[in-house]
Amino acid sequence: MTIKTSRFGPATLVTAAFIGPGTVITASLAGANYGYALVWALLFSVFATMVLQEMAARLGIVTGRGLGENLRELLQHPLLRWPLLLLVIAAIVVGNSAYQGGNISGAALGADALFGDIGLIKSWHNAGGINLWALLLGFIAAMVLWFGQYKLIERCLIVLVLLMSLAFIGTMLLTQPDIPALLKGAFWPLIPPGAVLSVVALIGTTVVPYSLFLHAAAAAQKWSQSQTATQTTTQLALRASARDIAVAIPLGSLISIAIVSTAAAAFFGREQTLENVAQLAQALTPLFGNAATWCLALGLLAAGLSSAITAPLAAAYALTGILGKPLDLKQPLFRLTWLVIIVCGVTLASIGVRPLKVIWFAQVANGILLPLICLCLLLAMNYSLPAPYKNSRWQNVLGVVVLLVSLILSGRSLALAFALL
Predict the structure, then answer these.
(1) Which burial class, exposed, middle or buried, applies to 1 when counting CB atoms under 10 A from its CB (0-12, 13-18, 19+)?
(2) What is the pLDDT of residues 153-186, one digit of tens each?
(3) Any transmembrane segments, and where (predicted)?
(4) Which of 239, 68, 266 is closest to 178 using CA atoms?
(5) What is the pLDDT of residue 56?
(6) Number of neighbouring beta carbons within 10 Å of residue 369
(7) Is the pLDDT assigned to residue 27 strictly greater than 80?
């Protein structure tokens, strides 16, 4: 087996998954409402993501199976197996259908800001009221997945991640962030009044449960281990995966911090309040010029399109794995799953559902569901792997820390939600 040594690999799919319109909106609201005070939550998020994604990748590399297949094998008792598996299916497949509407809507906002003055597109919108961008972006996502080649999907997502990195970081540099305030927010953790749900949402938009299914399956496909694979080749694959995670996940965190910084520079401490990303783009023009607006729009387009590819892909990996189907991107059930999710997303985007409310609810729900997925992964890492590759004591400690923090944040968000009823 030849070990790929590229700096970018399956972890790039994770970055493409969590840097979507949900991240752009959630991070923008955090920056606009609380300035740089919640940057520490993003740093915790990248730490938690790296801990969990390392486990997911190791599980996929060693077993040659995704997280769904390993959960199916781990949970043998029907009273535990089917309720949990059905809950995971509902959370991943149904949840990603809601995410997809936001992904495509967000990408359409970026595309419209960049190319909306084209005469044909303007006349189409005025004539039928149909979101042409939603149809076009849904078609692009479907074409990338239809060919069923992992290498093609990975390369497309690497390009999109690099593109949105340049766009969002470029926007941050143009808005000239307050560096001392940024450093204080990063290394002096505090939760301003009313910011608990924002903290949960920031963590939920970064530590995405479906990314665990995505990463485990993608790592298994990129670094597939046969029965004759030696411990040496497995260790080489694990080291290549660790390098991949160490590059791609922190890059995603830097993008999130750039978005917070941009919104803080444009809105924090000003009388105007932020309600949507389009408003953020409009506010950047008089303050920082057209270049900042164009960079933000380009980043939003790349973020939405990358997530519009990874959300259906992750749901297909999760569903086919839990049902015991092989990791085959051309398998009928696999294709049907991602196709249904893309169609749902295009429909939601085309009928004009406001993406802000849909994405915000989905991100908070994501943070609440995270402890369950964390627990399942920890069980798999301790009971589904041969002894040399099981979690060490410190890996279990780190995993439990992430689990406990996610439980505390989820409890706080549930208490506040019930208090508002």
Answers:
(1) middle
(2) 888 888 998 988 888 888 888 888 889 999 999 9
(3) 36-57, 78-99, 130-148, 155-175, 195-217, 245-267, 287-320, 332-353, 359-385, 397-420
(4) 266
(5) 94
(6) 22
(7) yes
DSSP code at position 94: I
Q: How far apart are CA 164 and CA 187, in angstroms?
A: 26
pTM score of the predicted model: 0.86
CA-closest candidate to residue 140, choices 257, 256, 301, 273: 301
The encoded tokens of residue 298 equal 């380009």
| Token reading at 314 | 């992750």
What is the average pLDDT across 188-194? Answer: 88
267-298, pLDDT tens digit by residue? 887 666 666 666 676 667 666 667 777 888 88
The total number of residues written for the chain in this structure: 421
Q: Scanning the structure block, which residue is given the tokens 């008792």?
A: 77
- Whole-number Å distance between alpha carbons of 46 and 39: 11
The single residue listed with the structure tokens 């010029």 is: 289
Q: pLDDT confidence of 3, banded at 50, 70, 90?
A: very low
Neighbours of 113 (CB within 10 A): 20
In three-state secondary structure terms, 116 is coil
For 338, left (φ over 0), alpha (ψ -120 to 50), or beta?
alpha
Determine the residue type at 184: K
Give the C-alpha separation, 155 to 223, whole Å: 16
**Given the structure tokens 């830097």, which residue do they identify?**
254
Among residues 252, 208, 193, 257, the alpha carbon closest in space to that of 365 is found at: 208
- Domain boundaries defined on the chain: 10-419
Q: Is the pLDDT of residue 204 over 50?
A: yes
Helix (H), strand (E) counts: the chain: 18, 0
Chain centre distance of CA 14: 6
Residue with tokens 């019930």: 418
Among 43-57, 104-118, 140-154, 335-349, which is the least confidently predicted range? 104-118
Domain covering 10-419, topology? Hydantoin permease (1.10.4160)
Q: Encode burial over 47-60: b for 16+ CB neighbours within 10 A, e otherwise.
A: bbbbbbbbbbbbbb
Compute the distance between CA of residue 250 and CA of residue 43 in angstroms, rounded to an integer.
Answer: 9
**Nearest by Cα to 317 from 186, 218, 172:** 218
Q: Which residues contact 290 (CB under 8 A, 6 or more apart)?
A: none
Residue 175, both tokens: 């808005």
